Every structure is written in C-alpha cells, then in structure tokens.
Please model this.
Amino acid sequence: MKHLRLSIIGFGTVGQGLAELLATKRALLKQDYGLTVTLVSVANARHGFIYRDEGLDVPTLLELAAKRRPLSEHAGVRRWANALEGLQATGGDVLAEVTGTNLRDAEPGISHIRAALTQGMHVITANKGPGALAAAELFSLAQQHSVQLRMEATVMAGTPVLSTIREGMASANVTAIRGILNGTTNYILSAMVTGRDYAEALAEAQAQGYAESDPTADVEGYDSVAKTLILAALVFGSALKPGQVFRQGITSITREQVLQANDNGKRIKLIASLRRHRETDTLEARVEPTGLALGDPLARVDGVMNAITIHTDTLPEVTVIGPGAGRLQTGQGLLADLIAIAKTKQ
Ligand SMILES: NC(=O)c1ccc[n+]([C@@H]2O[C@H](COP(=O)([O-])OP(=O)(O)OC[C@H]3O[C@@H](n4cnc5c(N)ncnc54)[C@H](OP(=O)(O)O)[C@@H]3O)[C@@H](O)[C@H]2O)c1
Model:
C-alpha cells in the first residue's frame, strides 16, 4: 500500500473539487492503485493555513468552505496566517497548488511551488502562472530535489493533453499544435454564429458563469497565451516569454465577420498555435481568431468545449476534445497527476 500526505494551497473551486474527488474516490484509489491519501493541510487567503497530523476531514472542510466559515473551525488543527510559512513548517509528500493564476509574476503560486520542491515535495498544479512564466526554472528545481512537478490541469483542465503528448505519444516528434484552449471565447464565438453580437454573447457568457465580470484575460487572449507558453515549455522544450507569442483577442470580431465566415463554410475560432520551423530552428507561437474550414476537427467544437490537434511525425494528426474548466473536471487533472506520482513512489 502506498501512502501520500497531501497539502492543498488554494481552497476555491478547484481545491474543493480535488478534495471532493479524494473523498468520493477513496475506495477506488485503494482498490485500483493501492493508494491512500491523507489530506494534512489546506489553505486559503482569508483563513490561512491549517494542519492536522492525523489528517483533515474532507466533508467538514467542504461544509466550512460552502458556508464561508474559517477553515480553522475544523477540530484539532494548528493554524498559520501565511500559507508559505505553514507549508515550510509542516511539509508533506505532495503539494496541490491551486491559488489564482497571476500572469504578471506568478505569485503567490510560484513561491509555494518553489518552497515545496525545495523541501522535497512533489507538486501538482492547475495554476497557469508558474508554468507559463517559469517552467524551466521550476522543472530544474524539481530535478535538483528528485521530485516531480506535474501540471496536467493547466491546459484543458482534466482532459488529458500533456500526458497524452508526453506519455501516450512518447517518442513521436511533435511538429505543430493548434488548439481552442479557452472556453469563454469559444462560447462567445459560438453564440455569435447564431446571430448575436459580441456584447450580447459576452453578457450571456457572464450570466451563465462562463465569463468573469472582468473578462479581459479570456477575451484578449492572455489565458490562451499562458497555455501556449506551457505547451511550448513542456512539449517543445522552449522557454518562450509572453511577448514572443503573437496575441490578438476576439473583442474586435463583429457579428458580420462571423456570419460572413459562416456563409463561406468557415468558423472563426480563437486558435492557439505552436509550429516548429525546422529550417530556422525556431518555434512560432500565436493566439489569434482564425477562420477554419468546416472539415477541420476544431471548427465544430462549440460552446465552452476545448480541443487540441497535435501534429507529429508518426501520428500525423491527433485531436483531443473535452472540457477545459470546472470544479471536478479540473480536480480530475490534479488527481490523475497525483496517481502518476504515486505510481513512481517506491
Ligand atoms: N476553475 C477552473 O475551472 C480552472 C480550470 C483550470 C485551471 N484553473 C486554475 O486553477 C487555479 C484555481 O482556480 P479556482 O477556480 O479554484 O480559483 P478560486 O476559486 O478563485 O480559488 C483560488 C483560491 O486560492 C486562494 N488563495 C489566493 N491567494 C492565496 C494565498 N496567498 N495563500 C493561500 N491561498 C490563497 C483563495 O483564497 P480565498 O478563498 O480566501 O479567496 C481561493 O481559495 C487558478 O490558477 C486557475 O487559473 C481553474
């Protein structure tokens, strides 16, 4: 039987989704993977970091979070006001880092990840900031401390993209990747095909909870840029900077352009792409609205759904379609990474 002591920093939508899966899949983890997981610590910004050596009770934590009560009301816990200090004082086998994405300096996630790796903890994360801005540094730190850093959930949530490419397609030489990596913009563009204008479609996405009240990160393409940077680092081994990704959002796309494209048998999608140019040994990275012919597998991926097409030498074209967000959908990506780590544990 393998045993992992887990810390979750960030207890919002995704942190709670992972905790819920740990509880609902407890028996399956034991039976199918010989794995038991003890959640020893949890942190959020409002209530700080709580730790209990014998493990925390997930239903109690979820109830406290749902009622927005302090997590420290859980019985028998020690508490630190600051997550980083709590983590450094208590440790564990694996850190799940699921604080909010910050594409300016990747904080606070990057500090949590650096601290965990340095103290010999494996890290799983859905937070895009650290992978987008500092993948090379963090993977090198992980290697230095003989631990793993896995980030399946950063690209298309739990839909397996990184593991499909790195493990499922091992040894295939990836030449290009094209994807719809942002559900909000795909929802808006799909709604515009039915005749709505941009503002109407955005308002609808916000009402449905698919777009934030400040939608800039999604509609201006920054979220897709972050995922493109992660793919550049993990798939192509290229540490691109955000400014090296050509970026154009969807805010200036009009209903007329969308309907015109439709009449011409095309669909406009916000496409993130990476292409290796062998002649110049460069990696071209772009995020931009693109008119796709209906025969393209990405053209018919509508609503909040995400998709990615991978071009390789041995498998010319592989397309993976699936959810790119959601509480359990993202928790699934983290859990798959946790299981992958458990499999390699002695
Ligand atoms: N939601 C999705 O579907 C999805 C999909 C893929 C990837 N992601 C990524 O996953 C991460 C989490 O997303 P989410 O939707 O769960 O966000 P969220 O609901 O806003 O949760 C973020 C959590 O981080 C906590 N936090 C912020 N700063 C902290 C600090 N310094 N120390 C400890 N905790 C801190 C927040 O505390 P408070 O609760 O006190 O505010 C909150 O609990 C993000 O990076 C996001 O980009 C999300």
Q: What stands out?
A: Residues 9-15, 43-46, 83, 98-101, 108, 126-128, 153, 157, 325-326, 330 surround NAP (CB under 6 Å). Residues 270 and 289 are 4 Å apart (CA to CA). The radius of gyration is 21 Å.
